[in-house]
Amino acid sequence: MSFRPNRRHLLAWAAAAAALGPRDAAALDEPIELEWIDLVPEEDRGVALLALQTMGVIQHGELSTPWDQDLAASMTTEYDGERVRLPGFVIPLDFIGDGVTTLLLVPYVGACIHVPPPPPNQLVVVTTEEPHRITGLFEPVWVTGEFGAAAAVTELADVGYAIAADTIEPYEF
Description:
The protein is α/β, with parallel strands linked by helices. Helix content is 17%, strand content 35%. Strands 2-3-4-6-5 form a 5-stranded mixed beta barrel.
């Protein structure tokens, strides 16, 4: 079932935006810079941090899954509708020519390919109107765009979040 906003929804959203009052134009343009742990609700972050620290010492094949699966359904809506910036690695899904238009953004190299996928709250499907030319598999990037909790199923994994990308740029170390 898809949601299609009608006139009543648009008027309600306009009223809510007006109630927020005027905002500084620079603040509207500045994205919220997120880390992967920000995609886990605050009450579950202690367990998630332990899992993230463990990732550095797990060898491929040691575990059937490197994440606590109880956290898999733990999603946050704190950043829904916000313009965010999130670093990660590219796993291409759809191409136009030599550019990717849909990709998975993952928190570590090899996720979904060489090791079991992270839970949905650690995967982001990214779409872009302007194809992003990739230089190689697992390219580190910064993705900036509108964020939202959005369950999706791909051939590689179940995904919990989406970003409609304004920009995809190389991650500088």
